[in-house]
Each structure stands twice: as C-alpha cells, then as structure tokens.
C-alpha cells in the first residue's frame, strides 16, 4: 500500500468483514494503525482546550465583569448559560455535517465559529459603547463560541473509532474529552490573573486565534481501518433517533429495549452530573464569594476540580483500554454515588473558613466525574452529555440567590440545596444501568477470523 511509510512498523492484522453466513466469500479488510493518528489527536486536544476556556472564563470574575460593564450578575451568568443552551442543538448538527462532509471539514467550520467569537466578544470591550450594546456583543461572542465547542467534543468517539484500535480507543477518547475540562480549568485560573475583565477578553481572543492552525493536523480517515467498527460507515442521526424511539431501522442501527433504557439512564445520570460541573464553572464566584472567599480562591477551587479529574482520567483510561475492558458498568455504579454525595455535601461545606474541606471535595468530584467522562462517551452518550438538565439547573439557580438582607448577603444556599438534590436524583438512575459493550464484543470477535 502507498501509505505503508505511515505505519507503526508492525505487521498488519488481516481480517474478514462480518457476515451472517460464514459460507459466503467475505471481503478482505486489512486493519492497520497509522502514526498520523497522533497529529490528529493533538489537533483535537488543542482546539478542545481553547473552546473550553470561554465558557468558564467569566465564572471567577463575574462580580468584576458586572461592575466593569455596568450589567447585572444575571447577565454575566448568561455569558456562560448560552453555551449550555446552544450546545444541545449544535451537538445534533455536528454528526449531520461530519457524516456528509467529513471530520476535517466539520472541524474547519468549528474553527471559523471560534475565530468569529473571539473578535465579536472583543468588540464588546470598546469603551464608547453603551452597557446594552457592549453586552449584546459579549453575548453573541459567547454564542458563536458555543457553536464551536461541541464540534471538538462530539467528534471525539468518531475520530478515535476511525483511527485507533481496541488498545487505544478509550485513551484517545479520554484525551479529547478532557481537553475541554483542561480549558475550563485554565479559564478558571487565567481570567482572575488579568488586571481588568476587558484585558482578559483580549487575551482570550489572542489565544483563540493562535489555536486555529491546529485544524490542519486533523484528517478524515486512514487508508485502512484500525478495527471492524472503524471500517463501517457512521449511521445517520435520523436512524439513531428512530432506534431510540423503537421505530423500524436497519439491522446495524437497531437498539434493543434494554439498550434504549440504558441510553435514557446514561442521558439523565451523566447529563445531570455534567450539568453540575457546568454550573460550578459559571457560578463559582457566586457560590463562594458571599461567604468570604476571594475571586482567586474561587478560581483555584474550580481549577482543582478539573485538574484532579484530568490526572485521574490520564491514569485510568489506559487501564480501561488494556486491563479493565469489561467493567464499565460496575465502575459507573461505584463512582456515580460517590460524586453525587460529594455534590450534596457542598450544602454544608460552603461556609466561612472552610477552604481545606472545599478543596478536598473538589478533588473527589473532579477525579470521579472526569474519570467517568470517557466511559460515558464510549457508551454512546456523546450527543447528549450536556443534556437539558444542564440548562434547566442554570435557569433556576439564578432565581434562588438570597437577597441583600440575608446572612451572608446574596448567598446561594437555596441554589446549592436544589443543585445537590438534582444531582442525587439524576445519579440514582445509574443503579439500573446494564452497560453492555456490544461494539467492543464485535471488535474482539472479528479479528479472530483471520486469513
């Protein structure tokens, strides 16, 4: 093959395509790995980090942004909320575009949205603008950025399936999936370090622009697939929706009743937990500042959550690829209750002079939540990990802020109670999860039928 120079240097595994009738003559498929997969992975990681910066950027500096632009805290919250409202419809558009035009072209469209968002947002920092006009530009900058974010997350399982085999697929999905939390952690750390919110927005625009060349590292598909599932054409979004509803579809798209129930469980459980992390990113300053913590401490708490999760995911994902390959369901049934209880305990932990306990809780929440993220993606929830629960939580929490006469003023205790209860309810669904790994079972069977 002409691309042999791109191989890892090991002999290709030759396998036959799947067929129900073993007496039929099958097509021969050569399963190979290419070094180019790592450059594409790097491109996704860079762009995932940068798109993750923007939705958490205003969380630690919410009060300063409100004062700087003469707008309300509720308006600042919506600079983060808009990401969650746009994410769901945009995530359903991504598979349609990638199926029709390919991974590379879809990534280019996401890059264009990222560039537009950077400089529309910066245009809102012009001092001659009225507060209303500046806010409109900030809002639409966040809106375009929200369109770009799901591009580099939803495509993660599709990219890893196209380029990686069973011994690297979960790790590749993990690397792309945690890029967004890395960006969010950096956003929590970087935004409070700038002298003013206006300067921080300029820095965000420069970073976003500098990351765009990473798109050229991404390619659509290798000349030969790495596994049996990697050789199959992706199913359409329409067939997925029909399968979820139990309507007639092709044999490849069919979902059993148990699989549909599992899909719903994953959607509610992990959608709620992901929404909880998103809420923290947007509301971190408003949760912690009223009880006496500085914006720098708020940023460090958010960053601790994400960075601890990143470290945990880096350690555990290769283990799920190579050792614990069939225990995803058990792992999720252990981790979800732990993280749900940790979120609930914040109701009593967010009190003055309790920073050590808060940092410990952030480590527990982060390490469990981000570890679960690639597992959830591999279970097929990439289209719904920021489900309706995310925006619903954020819609209601702003209304639960205490008045100025409360002790302490403007505290978010009622919001934390609501938040903890929602997480507990969503997380309880995980006990009914079977988590059958049908795709892995097929990939493990097919290579054994070698020529």
Strand runs, count:
2
> SSE string, helix = H, strand = E?
EEHHHHHHHHHHHHHHH
Provide the gyration radius in Å: 22 Å
Shape: globular
Main β-sheet, spatial strand arrangement: 1-2
Q: What ranges have pLDDT less than 50 throughout 5 or more consecutive residues? A: 1-26, 381-406
Task: Sketch the major β-sheet.
Answer: 2 strands, antiparallel
Task: State the secondary-structure class.
Answer: mainly alpha
Helix content: 55-70%
Let me know the average pLDDT.
74
Number of helices: 15
What fraction of the residues are assigned to beta strands by DSSP? under 5%
* Distance between the ends: 18 Å
Walk me through what this model shows.
- The protein has helices spanning about 35-55, 60-70, 75-100, 105-125, 130-165, 170-190, 195-210, 235-245, 255-290, 295-320, 330-350, 355-380, 390-395, 415-430, 440-445, and strands at about 15, 30.
- It is mainly α and about 450 residues long.
- It has a two-stranded antiparallel sheet with strand order 1-2.
- α1 packs antiparallel against α5, α3 packs antiparallel against α13 and α11 packs antiparallel against α14.
- The longest helix is centred in the first third of the chain and has 33 residues, at about 130-165.
- The radius of gyration is 22 Å and the shape is globular.
